[in-house]
Amino acid sequence: QVQLEESGGGSVQPGESLRLSCAASGPISIIYTMAWYRQSPGKERELVASMTYSGDTTYADSIKERFTISRDNGKNTVDLQMNTLAPEDAAVYYCYAHIQTRAGPSKHWGQGTRVIVSS
Length: 119
Fold this sequence. Notes:
It is built from no helices and eleven strands. By secondary structure, the protein is mainly beta.
C-alpha cells in the first residue's frame, strides 16, 4: 500500500523560512509527478508547486521566486523550500503523488502538515 508521509510544518513569523518534506513508500514502480497543494479555511485546495519525474516544474504565481520544489527520484521524496513566508501562506500543505504500481497508476495524498505564519 502506497503511503505519503509529510513533515516540516510549524509556526513561523512573517519573513521566515520553512522546509516541507514528503516521502512516498510502498510498492512503487515510478512516481510520475510529485506536488504540493495547500488549503486555507474556506478556500479550495490549490496547487503550490509540482515536479515531474524528468524535472519539469510548475509553480503558482503567488509563490514564484519564494518557494522551490525539489525531489529525489531514487528516494521517492519531494521537498518544498518556502522562503519569505507571509501570513497568506498559512494553510495546511498536502503532498501529492501520481504513482505507477503493478496494479496500475493511482493518485495519492498525504495527511497534511500545517503551516502557521503569524507575528
